[in-house]
Amino acid sequence: MSEDLNLKPCPFCGSKDAPRLYTRHGKDGWRDRYMVLCDYDDGGCGASGGWYHYIDEAVSAWNGRAKNEE
Fold first, then answer.
1. 52, 34 in Cβ contact below 8 A?
2. Contact yes or no for 66/11 (Cβ under 8 A)
3. Angle value at C-alpha 15, between 11 and 18, nearest 5 degrees
4. For 10-38, what is the mean pLDDT?
5. C-alpha angle 33/36/42, rounded to 5°?
6. Domain parsing of the chain, residue ranges
7. What's residue 1's pLDDT?
8. Closest to 10 in 3D by CA, of 34, 43, 41, 32
9. How far apart are the C-alpha atoms of 41 and 58, rounded to whole Å?
């Protein structure tokens, strides 16, 4: 799923495979929240971008923290 979201590598450990989108479901699907996390289970470091109400906000926050790839 991360490939579909165009998540940049982790700005701390550099992992390209560990960043994942997580969802915290609200009551009856109301007020779901989303976060990108550099998942330990996939070799990441545990860094996160914080919780947001929309997927695009979570992805933008994560990608905005990523290192410059120039």
1. yes
2. yes
3. 110
4. 92
5. 130
6. 2-65
7. 46
8. 43
9. 20
4-33 b/e (C-beta count within 10 Å ≥ 16 → b):
ebebbbbbeeebeebbbbeeeeeeeeeeeb
- Asked whether the beta carbons of 28 and 56 are under 8 A apart, the reply is no
> Encoding tokens for residue 52?
């947001």
- pLDDT (tens digit, 9 = 90+) per residue, 26-64? 887 688 999 999 999 999 999 999 999 999 999 999 999
Q: Mapping DSSP to helix (H, G, I), strand (E, B) and coil, where does residue 53 land?
A: coil
As given in the structure block, the two tokens for residue 44 are 């990441």
Q: How many CA atoms lie within 13 A of 19 on its CB side?
A: 29
